Amino acid sequence: MSIWEYANPVKFIRTTDRLMPYLAVGAVICLVSGLVWGFFFTPDDYRQGSTVKIIYLHVPAALMAINAWIMMLVASLVWIVRRHHVSALAARAAAPVGAVMTVIALATGAIWGQPMWGTWWVWDPRLTSFLILFLFYLGYIALWEAIEDDDTAADLTSILCLVGSVFAILSRYAVLFWNQGLHQGASLSLDKEEHVADVYSNPLYVSIAGFVLLFIALVFLRTQTEIRARRARALIARERLT
């Protein structure tokens, strides 16, 4: 069985219909257990106090904000190379979800930064690149809405996605590129000195799993909606011609 079979809208809808209940239940279980575990059953950090617990929202949201754009990049490349409409619609469906994840990451970062840095915002390299990434999300969504022809919109948004991917990469690795940034290093790292203690990382893994499952479920649901909306527009256009 080839993965390209799911480029068929009917097969995609049938398959995702079967998967979505499991994804939704898994997302709820992981999110509730991870957040409750992290916020109520982990100790305060000796330096950051209770503010360290913001990582259970901030880190998963930041990871999904970046990876959502990467998923859009892959889907856009599939559209450019193979012209599969489902991939273009999946990229369109993922954009609002990724934008919301970016807002959550920026907001929780500000909540953490105020007591740690004494200010809600600094023009730190990672924060700045994340803000630019959010603007790219808004531009991507607006471009889809501004162009009536779906194929033309898919072509132009795919190009925009390629450009925006630079900032997705910068958002992920800005701390490594610019050592003078205030933003701390990665909470989850192969470096034992940077990696958070197990008492914090274990519930964080569960929260991340919940965010991943939630993202996949929402993208499947929104892609189905985009497919049906495209069908409806095609039927309306056909009726007008007749």
UniProtKB/TrEMBL annotation:
Keywords: Cell inner membrane, Cell membrane, Cytochrome c-type biogenesis, Membrane, Transmembrane, Transmembrane helix, Transport. This is Heme exporter protein C. Residues 9-183 form the Cytochrome c assembly protein domain. The chain crosses the membrane at residues 21-42, 54-81, 93-115, 127-147, 159-179, 199-221. It comes from the Bacteria. It is a multi-pass membrane protein. It is found in: Cell inner membrane; Membrane. Belongs to the CcmC/CycZ/HelC family. PANTHER family: CYTOCHROME B_B6 PROTEIN-RELATED (PTHR30071:SF1), HEME EXPORTER PROTEIN C (PTHR30071). Required for the export of heme to the periplasm for the biogenesis of c-type cytochromes. NCBIfam families: ccmC. The keyword Oxidoreductase does not apply. Pfam families: Cytochrom_C_asm. One of its GO terms (molecular function) is heme binding. The gene is ccmC. GO terms for biological process: cytochrome complex assembly. GO terms for cellular component: plasma membrane.
